[in-house]
Amino acid sequence: MEERTRAYLRGRFRDYYRRTEITPPPEADEREWGFIPWTDGPGTTMVRHRSLLELGDIEDFLERKRPRHVYFSVGRYDDPGAGSMGEKGWRSSDLVFDLDADHLPGVTLGEDSYAEMLAICKDALYRLLDFLEDDFGFSELEIVFSGGRGYHVHVRDDAVLDLERDHRREIVDYVRGIGLEYDHLVDRETVSGLGRKTPTERRTLRIDGGWGRRVHGYFMAFIEELLNLPEDDALERLTAFEGIGEGKAKATLNAARNNREELEAGNVTVHTAVSQLAERFLEEAVERDNAPIDEPVTTDTNRLIRLPGSLHGGSGLAVCRLDRAELEAFDPLADAVPDPFVGHEIAVDVEEGGEVELGGKIRTVEEGPQSLPEYVGIFLMARGRAEKEKE
Amino acid sequence: MQRLHARYPFLEAARETVASETVELATVVERDPAVVERAVERVVASLEDGDTGEPSRDTRTELLSYPVARVLVSAVEENVLVRKYARAEAEEAHDRFRTEFEETVELKSAASSGLTRETLLSEFDLAGDVRAVEGGYRIGVGAYLPLAAGCWGDEWRLVNRALSDGEVPVDETELHALLREAVRARVEEGLPFAVPEEIVDSLEAEVARVREILADLELTREIDTVVPDLFPPCMTALLDDIRKGEHLPHHSRFAITAFLASIGMDTDEIVELYRVNSSFGEEMTRYQTDHIRGETSPTEYSAPSCATMQSYGDCVNMDDLCERISHPMAYYERRLDDADDEEIEDWREAELEEA
Questions:
Q1: A136, B157: Cβ pair inside 8 Å?
Q2: Binding residue per annotation — B151?
Q3: B143 interface with A at CB cutoff 8 Å
Q4: Within a 13 Å sphere around the CA of B301, how many CA atoms are in the beta-carbon half?
Q5: Is the pLDDT of residue B103 over 80?
Q6: Is the pLDDT of residue A276 over 80?
Q7: Which of A153, A312, B13, B95 is the most buried (most CB within 10 A)?
Q8: What ipTM did this prediction achieve?
Q9: CATH classification of A3-175+293-340, choosing from 3.40.50.300, 1.20.120.140, 3.40.1110.10, 3.90.920.10?
Q10: Contact status of A323 with chain B (Cβ, < 8 Å)
């Protein structure tokens, strides 16, 4: 990045911060702050272990320093400005989740467009929110568009603040479906009688919550489908599963027809073939419902995370705090474009052209000096694809 | 009150009783041999039997022996002792409160102290996190996670629980196990602390005794030879089951894995040893093994004793040597000692040659 480009971006970042109100996170003065300044050369050095006491009022600081990136810690400390974690004195940490298009299954890097990646990411975000809102029942959620390739969720419910790394690992495994075992989703109860000499075991898939409910959902959807098929087709669907022959297929279909209510209630004892079949939907449930979060972010109680309201120095987009209700309509590539960068053009020299999707439209940018809407120019310069040209 | 405190000396109220009724702990250590003796028994039993020994009939002695035992554990200053001691105190408390909760009002035993589940929940600040529902309880996930972290078995993993609305359903047995973990954390809290010089001096002989026992146990844990032919019959049977692809209950899987870890096998080696059968579940084995070896959990688990193996029905094919030992590790140690060095071929080296 050339000096002129850097100076331009710094200047415009200042203008943005002058006109923008920043709401700091709760207990901002107990957190560690860090930032990456605009420096030349490819290396980036993070300035960290700063307390708000040292930085001063956050808005003043941003206006004065106009950093390229700015972060605060999920952790709260006795002495957030201390130079090492040991000295800081950990008190508690927000629980954070990071969904990053770079790590998402279903995203093909270099092939999917920026908008496509972000759309896949948003789907994953909804799956994550399902877990956080329904299973975990969290209410202090803050959803944030990262300004780059994904979304963050900050959880600040009292119940999670004191959790240590290992406990957070359990939460990660839960939303990822790691370590899930069918046997443990099933309750066993010994029932005597039923016309047999030996007591039998009643096995019930737990449908009152957790992954059991999800597995059951997919299982029942399949049963539903079976019942709507002609007999031959239904049997064919069943025998398509490895290990299910004609006998088991017939037994399963009969069970589906005659014991529908039992199946609805999670009872998988109706026939051994049924239990085996239900188990096969575990994998499907995990594949379809798991939230592919970036694991180390969530387990790290000292993580630094991007400040909502600040600018992402690698895109020139704003890090946006999102209301749950506005999430549906939120279009990151239009809504995260900072207002001050809209409505006028600037001269840039594009080194790496191509398609740019911003501000609600896709434009193909040629290489070479030209005039572009400012937010497009800033995006390209921040990504290292263009330099500032003299006006 | 005294009885309650003597039975559950980790209670906050018990601590207050001790604080208000005793002179200096140093004086007790110096002048009350019965208390010191009982304190030593608490600690020694925690190492040897995993419990806290026979309670003293005198409530005062029993009550005071707890803080003195904590002093002793602190003076020895070994993490393994802190862990084993806290575990034993918690197991003992667990046995006691479980029995007590089950007693009906009419059938209170003489030992009963009137402790209720509600009191215990409040003691650990869990009253607001646990509520009774039909068929069991529901506990808030934030309270569940730290307590379940100390519990053995994949059924405790959050991913395998029917979590909904921020609560984990647990049955009564499970709730009691979680309370046991709360006791363990309470006992472990602050251990080891700095013990004043003069107390260390008066406990010199006791500290030496505990160190000696620890050293003996330590020796057992340093076996680093893997000769499946010399395994005790119980472990051989379990290993065979795994290799046959049988689905083992958790206590059995735990027993064999903890045994293998204790004789010096690392996670990769255990996975390799199990691998004969392809359906043994590598990922799960790794997770369990890391957990047992203390790499992903706060505790390093040791293999269960013969008594535990028996109570789970895992003690099979007893032979003459079994009659003379009380721990599968001891069996293996003897067999190794008796075997000619020439004959001992470590399984891991054999594997290497094959590869």
A1: no
A2: no
A3: yes
A4: 24
A5: no
A6: yes
A7: A153
A8: 0.92
A9: 3.90.920.10
A10: no
